[in-house]
């Protein structure tokens, strides 16, 4: 029985990794199609490759996605769409998709909302609750720098603000200033636990009980959908 449970868990973990690789490859493909195959001159591709390497995606997979995007032949055209809606407890949710079939993806996302106590709304129904920001997270244990120094270096690099946590510094930038700030801080010797342009919630909704269970199942449904690249929400729950 223990062996079977281990196999079940391993199978789910392997499937989750495969799903992640599919999404990463699609992001690399889209960015390479949009801006060319050279990451030095294509910042979107550079970020997509960095995300893929952070997830330990094999280099062959990365190269294959770039080659597929730029090699001619029967290319797939993906459309970027942001779906918005509400989850249980009034939680605001934004779902970023890359799809080659808008009707299929809209139906799948709507189903994920509806089956778990939420509802998909019109464009703009929740995005006003989020700010589009660059986010760079520095691990304080890895980089022993005091708060004043970190703040000064971040602001000099062009950051808008810095949030100090016990374990990390969260550096916020405008979406168009993100690349400049990231490059400047990397030149200063920093690397990042998280780096990217995100939709960050302005306020947080705490959920628990049945709503928390439904929300977790909703997040799993989005994660399992190959068309869904990112999910942004404004909820938090107590860790058990």
Task: Describe the overall structure.
With 240 residues, the chain is an alpha+beta fold. The chain has three domains: 2-70, Arc Repressor Mutant, subunit A, CATH 1.10.10; 79-128 and 203-236, YebC, transcriptional regulation domain (Alpha-Beta Plaits, 2-Layer Sandwich); 130-201, Alpha-Beta Plaits, CATH 3.30.70.980. The protein contains seven helices and ten strands. The strands form three sheets. The chain has a four-stranded antiparallel β-sheet with strand order 3-1-2-9. A hairpin with a 3-residue loop joins β5 and β6. The relative contact order is 0.14.
Number of strands: 10
Q: What is the average of the pLDDT values?
A: 88
Radius of gyration: 19 Å
Number of continuous helical runs: 7
CATH architecture of the largest domain: 2-Layer Sandwich
CATH class descriptor of the largest domain: Alpha Beta
Structural class by sheet pairing and helices: alpha+beta
The CA-CA distance between the termini, in Å, is 26 Å
CATH topology of the largest domain: Alpha-Beta Plaits
Strand content: 15-25%
Shape: globular
Q: Helix coverage percent of residues? A: 40-55%
Order of helices and strands: HHHEEHEEHEEHEEHEE
Low-pLDDT runs of 5+ residues are 1-12
How many independent structural domains? Answer: 3
CATH superfamily of the largest domain: YebC, transcriptional regulation domain
Query: Quaternary state, please?
Result: single chain
The major pleated sheet works out as: 4 strands, antiparallel
Walk across the major sheet and give the strand order: 3-1-2-9
